[in-house]
Backbone:
């Protein structure tokens, strides 16, 4: 996992997935654009997030950080993050890879 | 008092002479810094405009100056400039253009003799010390310009590769795509497109400079032939 930012991004991904049972906490860990997209489509985040049935990862398999952007591969999910002034926030979760194309994500920002 | 004033005037004169004697280097260093500042200010503004549109984190100027985005944009231009001058230095040993002040005359092609190069026993009192030596030290010094230009080119091209991959991968993640490994980035269009788009402009600039200088003049410039010299005159600088 290496650098401090790798650890911070990994921890933010784990915190997000770990707090999915407490949606208010999980919603606070979403990036502004991702929160807005979710609420625009499904209503209030704390009500809408549980309905997305996101997989819950508990182990970090791999992490890549480039500047303020990170991808964390968990045992059961792939999470994209960005580092804001107040820490790492989730920009997309519930992501599955597609060959030579962007990941398909259950929730994601613009 | 008079002595002090004289010393002051002498110092001022020496500083003035030093500034004049190095004015070309100083002017280009100043232009470099001004252009870098311009690039940094417009670069961070452009980056932040896109980040705000995507509701992603913006960068401060200091963060941008230490970012891979700024590094790759600087390095891709630097490598091509050094490649241009490296090729120019090396190719003009053998290749010529009749009528160009940038070219040697046909009979002067090649590395030239010890006597013409003022090396070995032909070195003069003003020759640099390595020019009086023999063997690898003379050989190294005889190619030091090309070697340094080549090393700086390779260094900045490598920096473009490293910073380019990092900047590209940040964009990939922002677009919810997987980052590329080193070997994938080496084959990526982004790396080669950044490289070739800079190379083509450098080669164009050199080719046009060589040809334009056959027919066109800039009075007083050592890059031009004297105004009255014929188009056929080669290797004559004004």
Residues:
């Amino acid at each position: 996992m290496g650098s401090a930012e790798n650890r911070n991004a990994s921890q933010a991904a784990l915190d997000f997935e770990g707090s999915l049972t407490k949606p208010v906490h999980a919603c606070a860990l979403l990036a502004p654009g991702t929160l807005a997209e979710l609420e625009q489509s499904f209503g209030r985040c704390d009500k809408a997030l549980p309905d997305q049935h996101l997989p819950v990862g508990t182990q970090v398999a791999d992490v890549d950080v480039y500047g303020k952007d990170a991808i964390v591969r968990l045992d059961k999910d792939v999470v994209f993050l960005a580092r804001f002034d107040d820490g790492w926030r989730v920009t997309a979760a519930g992501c599955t890879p597609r060959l030579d194309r962007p990941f398909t994500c259950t929730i994601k920002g613009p | 008092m008079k002595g002090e004033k004289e010393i002051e005037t002498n110092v001022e004169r020496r500083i003035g002479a030093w500034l004049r004697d190095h004015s070309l280097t100083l002017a280009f260093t100043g232009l470099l810094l001004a252009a870098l500042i311009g690039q940094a200010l417009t670069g961070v503004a452009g980056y932040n405009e896109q980040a705000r549109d995507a509701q992603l984190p913006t960068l401060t100027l200091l963060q941008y100056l230490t970012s891979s985005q700024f590094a790759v944009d600087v390095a891709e231009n630097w490598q091509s400039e050094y490649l241009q001058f490296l090729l120019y230095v090396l190719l003009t040993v053998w290749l010529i253009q009749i009528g160009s002040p940038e070219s040697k005359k046909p009979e002067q092609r090649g590395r030239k003799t010890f006597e013409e190069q003022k090396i070995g026993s032909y070195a003069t009192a003003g020759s640099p010390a390595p020019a009086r030596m023999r063997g690898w030290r003379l050989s190294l010094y005889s190619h030091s310009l090309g070697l340094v230009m080549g090393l700086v080119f390779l260094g900045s091209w490598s920096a473009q590769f490293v910073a380019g991959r990092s900047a590209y991968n940040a964009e990939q993640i922002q677009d919810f795509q997987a980052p590329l490994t080193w070997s994938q980035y080496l084959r990526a269009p982004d790396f080669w497109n950044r490289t070739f788009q800079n190379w083509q402009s450098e080669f164009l600039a050199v080719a046009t400079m060589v040809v334009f200088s056959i027919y066109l003049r800039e009075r007083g410039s050592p890059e031009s032939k004297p105004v009255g010299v014929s188009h056929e005159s080669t290797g004559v600088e004004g």
